[in-house]
Specification:
This protein is an alpha/beta fold and about 400 residues long. It is built from nine helices and 21 strands. Helix 4 links the parallel strand 9 and strand 10. The longest helix is centred in the C-terminal third of the chain and has 29 residues. It starts with 5 loop residues before the first strand and ends with a helix. Bound molecules: flavin-adenine dinucleotide.
Length: about 400
């Protein structure tokens, strides 16, 4: 018999515990929001794969990915963020309360922050599945460098990650062979990394090649490369092949739930808002120009702050806007037309005396409230009755009509 899932309620649920998710947690936790962060594998995310991070501000001597992420985690915990080590299986964003489901639990939340990042792309070559991870195909130089001390290793790819991790591996391995898809001398990494790699006597390049096949017994023994020009096969006898050929976003569970690019990256605006109200996305999972710890941190800060503002506005909307019968005057204090209309509204307010209230919403300060009322032009008068907006009037409103609606 299927076990009934336990239901828990939160202000904010964050899916993914990398740099973006942890930063969002630091902000929302510090804003005293009841925050849950769900991480299916290692807290710290992809940054923990790299031994050296030299470009994160505040660490002039550089730091390790794991060390840096441990500090992020410590800081999030200090602000009361709760952590769960499990996989989010499905989400339902269709209602006002968002649902996040894991194997054992159902989490209900006012806000969800998607911070699920990406995962390494694989080559798709023959037998790749057989040798993944501990059988010889690795995506993590930090994890597998020491066990390759004194041995030859192969790297697939020539981007920044491939070359920087390759350089790191030269400290352990006897030789680091790099399979590059491009013509001799052409690489996808930055020029500094390229110059350093080409000058490193422990690095060797096999140009114009792609992986054709992985071979071995229990463990990887040989990688067959194919020369794209000559079609010749090249055997590279190595116990470990490191693949650094890009990433795929972890967004399968958000298909048909969030707007995404054709490559599956979540689309957000500058406030990290997705197309669903109350759902934000941050870091590598979004369609962004630069995927780095520093940019994921910036996104996380915005989303954590936005979550707090969203929840506060939602509460104001329910209690002050819909909570009592009356008039909501939506205006822009800097517009003359709005100021004239305000005088009319104040006259109406006196006529209605204490029977009905008039709430003022400055669209400039409280965009979230006017958006909830679906008002994008000002001035407007929203008439609220019985917890609902029953009519929206323009600047030439008739005070008698307002009074009769509210009567
Ligand atoms: C080898 C390597 C070297 C790098 N070097 C640098 C560097 O020097 N400097 C730098 O700034 N950046 C570097 N980066 C990039 C940096 O690591 C990423 O930009 C950063 O980690 C992005 O953070 P994120 O929070 O968006 O995503 P991630 O770090 O990818 O975290 C996402 C997390 O979400 C979890 N998750 C996914 N789906 C689910 C689910 N359904 N349920 C629960 N959890 C889920 C994943 O397990 C993962 O832990 C490097 C990356 C790699 C791979």
């Amino acid at each position: 018999m299927e076990r009934e899932k336990k239901i828990e309620e939160y202000d904010v649920v964050i899916i993914g515990g990398g740099a973006g998710g942890l930063t969002a947690g630091i902000y929302s936790g510090r804003a005293r929001l009841k925050t849950l962060l769900i991480e299916k594998s290692l807290v710290g995310g992809l940054a923990t794969y790299t031994n050296e991070i030299e470009n994160y501000p505040g660490f002039p001597e550089g730091t390790t990915g794991l060390g840096l992420m441990n500090l992020f985690e410590k800081q999030a915990k200090k602000f009361g963020v709760k952590f769960k080590g499990t996989d989010v299986k499905s989400v339902d964003f269709s209602g006002e309360v968002k649902i996040v489901e894991t194997f054992r639990n159902i989490y209900k939340s006012k806000v969800v922050i998607v911070a699920s990042g990406g995962r390494p792309r694989v080559t798709g070559a023959e037998n790749e599945e057989t040798f993944l991870f501990d059988k010889g195909i690795s995506f993590c130089a930090t994890c597998d460098a020491a066990s390759n001390s004194g041995k030859d290793v192969l790297i697939i790819g020539s981007g920044d990650a491939a070359i920087e991790e390759g350089m790191f591996l030269t400290k352990f391995a006897n030789k680091v062979i790099v399979s590059v898809i491009h013509d001799e001398g052409k690489m996808d990494c930055n020029e500094i990394a390229k110059a350093e790699a080409l000058a490193n006597p422990k690095m060797e390049f096999v140009w114009n090649t792609v992986v054709k096949r992985f071979e071995g017994g229990e463990h990887l023994e040989n990688v067959v490369l194919e020369n794209l020009r000559t079609k010749e096969e090249v055997n590279i006898k190595v116990p470990t092949c490191f693949e650094f050929i890009g990433y795929l976003p972890n967004t399968e569970i958000f298909n048909d739930k969030l707007n995404m690019t054709d490559k599956g990256y979540v689309l957000v605006n500058e406030n990290m808002e997705t197309n669903v109200s109350g759902v934000y996305a941050v870091g590598d999972v979004t369609d962004k120009f630069l995927k780095q710890v520093a940019t994921a941190v910036g996104d996380g800060a915005i989303a954590g702050y936005a979550a707090e503002k969203f929840i506060a506005e939602e509460e104001t909307y329910k209690s002050q806007i819909l909570g009592k019968d009356g008039v909501v005057f939506v205006y822009d204090a800097s517009e003359a037309g709005c100021r004239d209309c305000l005088a009319e509204v104040e006259k109406l307010e006196k006529e209605m005396q204490k029977n009905h209230c008039v709430t003022r919403v400055d669209i400039y300060k409280s965009r979230g409230l006017s958006d909830r009322m679906e008002i994008d032009e000002v001035p407007r008068l929203a008439i609220v009755k019985g917890g609902k907006i029953v009519k929206i009037l323009g600047e030439n409103f008739d005070p008698e009509e307002v009074k009769s609606i509210l009567a």
